[in-house]
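Appendix B, example 12.
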Amino acid sequence: MKKRITQDDYIKANRKASREAEIEMYGHPICHKRVHQSKKVYNRRKIKAADKKLPYFFLQDSVTISRKLKRCLSIYLSNYLYNPS
């Protein structure tokens, strides 16, 4: 007796192949059922994330980093000048 391929088997095989191709292409499965969120909706998480990218935070961080680098360099150079080995 021959086994026939039903429509359900065909759909199942197509879905599986499509999912595997998607994972191979993008590295992870993509959700196609996600609801589109309007840009006009208030989203506190996005606003807070945008606030962290303001220039004065960057300048403040760069100043502290530059101070630390200067201190480390001065310590390293002083040690190197006193103990050249």
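Residues 60 and 67 are 11 Å apart (CA to CA). The helical segments are 7-26, 44-51, 55-82.
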